[in-house]
Known about the structure:
single chain, Rossmann fold, 9 helices, 4 strands, 48% helix, Thymidylate kinase
Amino acid sequence: xxxxxxxxxxxxSELEGRGVPAxxxxxxxxGLHPLQPLLRRLSSARQPDSWWTTTAYVIAGFxxxxxxxxxxxxxxxxxxxxxxxxxxxxxxxxxxxGPYLAAALALRWPRAFARFDLAVFLHAxxxxxxxxxxxxxxxxxxxxxxxxxxxxxxxxxxxxxxHGMGRRHDQLMVIDxxxxxxxxxxxxxxxxxxxxxxxxxxxxxxxxxEQPITDLKECT
Length: 220
């Protein structure tokens, strides 16, 4: 209930408005992940209460994805991939609801997961999330309700998310969505991204860029 999917859509629009091709993406990043169809049969909504679902998603899903994406790059090519959720949340939910062994092992070796050029952790105040839950949306699952109604669970989730999985990212932004609009957050993220990477075909390295990308096809 932090507004993650809303922000993803706003960021894609912001990048497109600046002439940078972008696409929203969910699920595994590798261009081909043979176990993804099987994982979709499991209830990710109830994952915090299931050691088996947590293990399947962490090991057979995201750890395998971290290996496969090196061999089979993300699709589509030629666009910035704005990933809507990833294994960081799965691990944090597994620790908050468990703790389960697979989640604990992922905290020990977080860089086994696929890497991102820029990661954004989004959160919101309990009051803001409760208001959003009350207003309703197209899809609300048991995780959404639990993060609003179970304060201790949510605090554990945020602690493992930020201080556990957060350390695997070289560039990490942490944003409170209850303080800014999706458009404002999207502009801030786009500014950060485009300050660190060159645009396709420009051949010009932007000031402060430490790791320029020449064609953005692997920018996630």
